[in-house]
Design brief:
The complex is a heterodimer of chains A (about 750) and B (about 300). With about 750 residues, chain A is an all-beta fold. Chain A has 2 helices and 38 strands. In chain A, about 0% of the residues lie in helices and about 60% in strands. By secondary structure, chain B is mainly alpha-helical. The N and C termini of chain B lie far apart (about 65 Å). Classes of the chains: A mainly beta (about 750), B mainly alpha (about 300).
Chain lengths: ~750, ~300
């Protein structure tokens, strides 16, 4: 009997689970990734079958497995593997993932979700786009009824195959292939000529239409690797390929802000609409050769590293015949990006107390695509033809790190590390006389870290660390950036058309401080506690741009195993983030004034006169996140046949933007608390609150059968001003309403399933 | 038969009294499934380490050491532990635990283990992997995140925000992007760079495009926060404010924006909310932020 039992322990447990979900309400957000987005019944289908002569008392090395999960949902997964361990292995897989984007999006346009052509009913007419919101009405007979709700989602279907073969005990081959098939759509903003008159003048008249941008993509990924393992060294040589194909070359949609003749046409009559053609993601390929390996000079001294060479190409034909294209000097880009990588790491255990390491990394992205000057009409089309040179951006990053880890005493370590990172940026063969296309051609950053680890006892450990980083920046304010006034004889816009003193945050000089600490304490065999926190502060040295920011976080976790059969675990997390932005404004317009109109310099067009103490404004972003959770597991009920698992969680995330204009605007200052203020004041919180309660009970009917019953309740309160601007009769005068709503829901789910286990 | 097939055949012979692995008798005589560790010890027979016919398969002492003192201790209370004990509260140094595994598991995904983040923070393989079970939670998509979240609490909170990858749903896991065994990329990413890692699944954004957006070519995390965000889609901030962190000259990027972005329903009295600020704001028109291949797409509008 004991022998049978030990044999049983070496036999896999197979299972088949069949049942049903019942979802009380439909919500795209609730079922965003799970497939439980529609109310009603869904099938529960899970199984796992394994076998082979390597199990039990078999003397072979063959094992196979067939698994399936969530078979009744759009998140289904199927897979199978078979291997003769030490000799060969084969695997196939299929995985689906639906991502629900929206179930409240409305459009008057005709065309299927996932398609690339959207049109208006012929009698829709152009929309009545008045400057006064109260006057913004759609025709009740022909336009309002045309709006219909669409479920917008994307589907990802992955089909994979892998194979491995051991040529010798030291040499093995591994092949992996994945085919990703995507369809569906994501929402995309599109702009077109609007030609709407506001305040008696024809403004830059964009008309906006949020459209379902198709994701008709196919991506094939291959990897073939040859692995060698020796006594002291190992090496892998591999090829990685990724080929992307887009089923559509363009996205066409009609513009209801103007007729094709450039004038509005009445609803109910026939109207020929202007057609807009957007580009889609171009087909592209990436091929990469990789070599990685390592060598142990001794048990104390080891070397590892790798080399990669990648070639990314794209040569899709450009769209032709579009009115916005004034001159396209090429029929396609013939784009080519070469990526190269090298890394080397040497580690040395100098003695039992001191471990040293040195790391070097090199990454280069060299964009060898040709640069030309293109002539085009921007969608506002008020200034005639515009000129721009495409800038094939290249960059090179080198990193060097040295670290020493010293054991001060048993269980007590200090690690010191220094890292230098340098990044250089350039544009090869830039169309404008090989001029520099970047105002920020390089950064260098030094980081110094000290980390302390203390293991007071086997059950009590503490960690703390501090990192200081200092980033310097090269700056070339006179660089000729792609859009820098190329339509004039001498490009006249400095600093990428930004104010003098403005530096984009990824490239600005920066001082960074990061503190972190944590303690883990196993109070007893039954109680575990963990507490950790982190604070980071970024200070940017820029007259204008992001000035500073910080992130702080604290997490507390506790577990109490109150008996052999039961445990309770709980957590609480808090995080706060702030970012302060300072910028300059030159507008003296009637609606968005931010400068005194009297000083003479305000009339200057040259940007070098725009910095003045009376036109600086600030914006503060505050992010707050809070989460708590409780999990209870209790088994051994009803004579050991029932196990219950309960989960309770609550999270609250808030983001708020506030803008201040600490200067006098025109003659009279604007009160930022005045609800009529366009340019300053605090926006409503972007708030998301989720409460979840989950209870699952599993009852062992007999030796082979279980019944599982589950209940899930989830409520989301979402408040986001983002949706305001798309509501009918509240939209700005040139936005087609979508009536999209923030995803609020309250959903109950009940699941019942039967599980059959067998050896 | 090839040489290595011969090795496998030789390896199939379990010794007298062995239960699962060659030479385990001296251990399973006590650890027979009835001791305090229970049957889980023998469940190693369900794992890859339990395939006796594979000549590479270890025995108990391959990992735990010869443990002579432990064996001589018999059933005496307080007897010495085995030479190598695995787990978070083990007296065996983490590096020594890891080396026991790396003696066989060389190269491949573990090429960069030595001196990398996890190794230098006293983690061993057994900090994440469970050896004596056929269900190693960290190798199961449905359960891997809870293993990683044991330490990575901020990512746990981020992954539950309104905009997130399908991590909690078990469809996207940490190891899809990260190699916890060490890597040549930043943040233990599987690929050499952030962009290369993201393009694995988002190849439509790879280009190269005729009109590139400079920060996109360097690092997706200039704008995105991949573990989760309160601002869809996985954004660090929202347009127009996100855009204004890099632009304050062209078009409306220099204009301060207050209640205007919240529209009339956000408290603005009925005046003219601007399409430049509400909803997608800049991206109502400049929507091709990842790059455009349209000859008239210089402003990322087409």
């Amino acid at each position: 009997a004991a022998e049978d039992e030990s044999t049983g322990l070496k036999m896999p447990t197979n299972y088949v689970e069949v049942g049903a979900w019942y979802t009380s309400d439909s919500s795209a957000k609730f079922g965003e990734y799970t497939g439980l987005d529609d109310s009603g019944l869904d099938l529960i289908g899970n199984f796992s079958l394994s076998g082979g002569d390597a199990y039990g008392d078999g003397s072979g090395a063959t094992r196979w497995t067939v698994k399936g999960t969530d078979l009744g949902l759009t998140s289904r997964n199927l897979g199978a593997t078979i291997s003769n361990q030490g000799q060969w292995s084969l695997g196939v897989g299929y995985d689906e993932l639906r991502h629900n984007i929206s179930d409240t999006y409305q459009t008057p346009q005709q065309g299927k979700m996932g398609g690339n052509n959207f049109t208006f009913p012929s009698d829709f007419g152009t929309i009545n786009a008045q400057s006064s919101p109260s006057a913004r009405v759609l025709d009740a007979t022909y336009q309002v009824p045309a709006f219909h709700t669409r479920d917008v989602h994307t589907d990802r279907k992955n089909t994979s195959f892998n194979a491995g073969y051991n040529l010798t005990p030291q040499l093995s081959l591994q092949f992996d292939y994945n085919h990703l098939d995507q369809d569906g759509a994501k929402l995309l903003g599109t702009g077109a000529l609007g030609g709407i008159s506001a305040y008696g003048t024809t403004w830059r008249a964009e008309g906006n239409n949020v459209i379902m941008n198709p994701t008709n993509y196919k991506t094939d990924t291959f990897s073939l690797a040859l692995n060698w393992i020796g006594d002291k060294g190992y090496m892998t040589g591999s090829y990685y390929g990724s080929i992307f194909r887009d089923g559509y070359d363009s996205l066409s949609l009609q513009n209801a802000f103007l007729s094709n003749g450039g004038t509005p046409c009445a609803a109910g009559g026939s109207c020929t609409y202007q057609t807009i053609v957007m580009s889609t993601a171009p087909d592209n390929s990436f091929h990469q050769l990789n070599l990685t390996g390592g060598y142990a000079f001794s048990s104390a001294t080891k070397l590892s590293g790798g080399l990669s060479y990648g070639r990314n190409t794209q040569d899709n034909s450009f769209l032709t015949g579009q009115p916005e294209i004034a001159l396209s000097p090429r029929a396609s880009l013939d784009g080519k990006v070469i990526t190269t990588h090298a890394d080397l790491k040497l580690t040395h255990q100098a003695n039992k107390d001191l471990a040293l390491s040195a790391v070097f990394k090199y990454n280069e992205r060299e964009n060898q695509s040709p640069s030309n000057i293109y002539q085009y009409y921007a969608i506002n089309n008020v200034s005639g033809v515009d000129y721009a040179a495409n800038a094939p951006y290249s960059n090179r990053k080198t990193q060097f790190e040295m670290a020493g880890d010293y054991r001060v005493s048993k269980g007590q370590n200090v690690r010191l590390s220094y890292e230098h990172e340098s990044i250089k940026r350039w544009c090869e063969h830039y169309a404008i006389d090989d001029a520099n296309c970047l105002v920020n051609p390089g950064n260098d950053e030094d980081k110094l870290s000290v980390n302390y680890r203390l293991k007071v006892r086997e059950d009590l450990s503490f960690k703390a660390g501090y990192t200081y980083g200092k980033r310097s920046a090269d700056f070339e304010g006179n660089a000729i950036t792609p859009l820098a006034g190329l339509d004039t004889a001498t490009p006249d816009d400095v600093n990428a058309q930004n104010f003098p003193g403005f530096i984009a945050f990824p490239y600005a000089k920066r001082n960074q401080h990061l503190f972190k600490a944590g303690v883990n304490w196993q109070v007893s065999d039954r109680v575990d506690l963990g507490l950790n926190g982190r604070y980071s502060q970024d200070d940017y040295d820029a007259t204008l741009g992001v000035q500073n920011g910080h992130t702080a976080g604290i997490n507390l976790d506790a577990t109490y195993a109150y008996s052999e059969k039961g445990s309770i675990s709980a957590y609480a997390s808090w995080m706060n983030r702030e970012r302060k932005l300072k910028s300059g404004c030159s507008s003296t317009s009637a609606t968005n004034p931010c400068r005194d109109t009297t000083p003479a310099d305000n009339t200057a067009s040259s940007y070098d006169l725009l910095i003045a103490p009376d036109n600086i404004w600030t914006n503060l972003l505050k992010d707050d996140s809070n989460a708590i959770g409780l999990n209870v597991k209790h088994g051994g009920l009803m004579g050991g046949k029932l196990e219950i698992v309960g989960d309770l969680s609550y999270s609250l995330d808030k983001s708020q933007y506030s803008t201040q204009v600490p200067f006098d605007q025109r003659a009279a200052p604007i009160d930022c608390n005045d609800p009529s203020s366009l340019i300053c004041g605090a926006l409503p919180d972007i708030k998301n609150e989720v409460f979840t309660f989950k209870l699952t009970g599993t009852y062992q009917v007999d030796k082979t059968s279980k019944v599982a019953v589950g209940y899930l309740y989830q409520k989301r309160n979402s408040d986001d001003y983002y949706y305001n601007g798309y509501q009918y009769q509240y939209t700005p005068n040139r936005i087609m309403p979508t009536n999209e709503l923030a995803p609020n829901y309250e959903v109950n789910v009940v699941a019942v399933s039967y599980i059959y286990n067998f050896k | 038969a090839t040489a290595d097939q011969g090795a496998v055949n030789n390896a199939t012979k379990l010794g007298s009294g062995d239960t699962v692995l060659r030479g385990d008798a001296k251990c399973t005589a006590c650890h027979d499934g009835e001791d305090k560790f229970g049957p889980k010890i023998l469940k190693i027979g369900l794992t890859k380490h339990g395939v006796a016919a594979d000549g590479r398969t270890p025995t108990c002492t391959s990992c735990h050491g010869e443990s002579e003192a432990h064996l001589k201790g018999g059933n005496k209370p307080g007897k010495p532990k085995p030479d190598r004990v695995f787990g978070k509260n083990s007296p065996t140094p983490a590096n020594e635990q890891a080396q026991a595994c790396l003696a066989c598991h060389k190269g491949g995904n573990r090429t960069h283990w030595e001196g990398d983040q996890h190794a230098s923070n006293d983690l061993a393989c057994s900090s994440c992997h469970e050896i004596h079970t056929d269900h190693d939670r960290v190798r199961d998509k449905k359960t891997q995140p809870e293993v990683c979240f044991t330490c990575h609490k901020e990512q746990r909170m981020d992954s539950r925000k309104i905009s997130h990858h399908a991590i909690g749903e078990g469809k996207v896991v940490c190891s899809d992007c990260h190699n916890p065994h060490g890597s040549a990329g930043p943040k233990l990413l599987k690929k050499n760079t952030v962009t290369e890692t993201c393009f694995t699944c988002h190849a439509e954004k790879r280009g190269p495009f005729l009109w590139e957006h400079q920060p996109v070519t360097e690092d997706c995390t200039n704008c995105h926060t991949p573990h989760g965000s309160n601002i869809t889609p996985l954004l660090k901030s929202r347009a127009p404010f996100l855009c204004q962190e890099c632009h304050d000259g062209p078009h409306a990027s220099q204009t301060p924006i207050g209640r205007n972005a919240a529209g009339i329903q956000g408290g603005l009295t009925p005046t003219l909310p601007s399409e430049t600020y509400v909803g997608r704001a800049c991206q109502n028109c400049h929507s091709m932020v990842h790059g455009s291949n349209h000859p008239a797409g210089a402003l990322l509008q087409r």
